[in-house]
Write a structure and sequence with these properties.
InterPro entries: DNA2/NAM7-like (IPR045055), DNA2/NAM7-like_C (IPR041679), P-loop_NTPase (IPR027417), SF1_C_Upf1 (IPR047187). The protein has 241 residues and is α/β, with parallel strands linked by helices. Helix content is 32%, strand content 19%. Helix 1 links the parallel strand 1 and strand 2.
Amino acid sequence: IFSLQTQYRMHPEICKWPNSYFYKNELIDDAKTHQFKTPLKPFSVLNLTYTQNDNCHRGQIANELEAQFVARLVKTLDGYIPMKYNTYGVITPYAQQRVALEKAMRTAGYSNVMVNTIDSYQGMERDVIIISNARTTGIGFLANYQRLNVALTRPKKCLILCGNFKNLEAVPAWRSLLSSARERKLYHELSPNCMDDMHRTVIPKIKASKANTATTEATATATTTTKEVTTVATTTKQSEQ
């Protein structure tokens, strides 16, 4: 049974809510994690108006418009956090949404970006992670807080959470996460036509302030090694890593 003490993986702003909710603020951010900067904010929540496909049933959830949004977002982000120097990943809770995302990513010319489910991403990390919730009717296993913890703790430099979060306000963990994002001014409502020009509709909302912005060159040459230190704990509850 293990419990994390010091985290070396992610920027402190990404770690802030998981540390508070899952680890009782017992995690210590290694000093090097403050250097994991990009021109964008380390964490952002984008509330979308798109709804899941009409033919979804028995957990086979897909949201094609959200998948198209994510693909265009990746293409836009590439201009600010160059994929030449940074690793990207897209995570979704649902296998059918993974298929929709892979199709959208191919169309956008980014088939090299790994798209997979939360369970498949456990133990992995990327510099930039985009999460596509997909589901807009019911809750299903989006209420599973262990999966939520895994998804939120995969990125190193930048995490963008995308979805239509209306139904999730009823889930305590999600309500806490969304409330925290609002308090930190990291929660943004987007209009249906936000895909038309993301440089105008999205980037201004998620761009870091000048004081916290690292240049592309600095991002490209960052060589901080990511590792995790664990220690045996007396608790009987296993923390997700």
